[in-house]
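User: We ran a pulldown and think these components assemble together. Before we commit to crystallization trials, I'd like a predicted model of the whole complex to look at. Sequences follow.
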Amino acid sequence: MTSKLDTFFGAMADPTRRAVIETLARGPASVSTLHAPHAMALPTFMRHLKVLEETGIVRSVKKGRVRTCHIDPAPLVEVQGWLAWQREIWEHRSDRG
Amino acid sequence: MTSKLDTFFGAMADPTRRAVIETLARGPASVSTLHAPHAMALPTFMRHLKVLEETGIVRSVKKGRVRTCHIDPAPLVEVQGWLAWQREIWEHRSDRG
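Assistant: Here's a predicted model for the assembly, 194 residues in total across the polymer chains.
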């Protein structure tokens, strides 16, 4: 649990990686489509994708020469749970201020 | 917006810092109370607190010799908004899979 949260939060602490998530939330996309809007070399971009794949939030499948990525929302749901839990405790405590 | 999310997600990508948030969600606490459960030198712990203060999620007030920390939930609400937005898009798209 702890290390999953570490890797998820670390993965989200980068604007390129959040942009990939924002694109994939709308639907699966190829690596080249995901890379196109980013002014960086493909190997650099691939390292960002790898960080996202390591958290489990992005998965990819290769068919022929095209690698297509999609979102697996499970880690997102888990992190939302942690944040919502903190907020819940904060909002319901008696000495709030 | 982008850089706020960067600093918040970066701050949360560490178990010591998340433990501080979990404690402060229950109520304000002094630096020494927050430090007590963590097996690290005070200066190391203070650097973690500084990272949290830089995101705005932790604020502190010094009275005499005691510095008391509390949560400001605004950054938490903002990040929850970003995550919920991604999830919302994902859950409502037509080609979901």
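DSSP finds five helices and three strands in chain A. That may be worth checking against your pulldown data before setting up trials.

User: Thanks, that helps.
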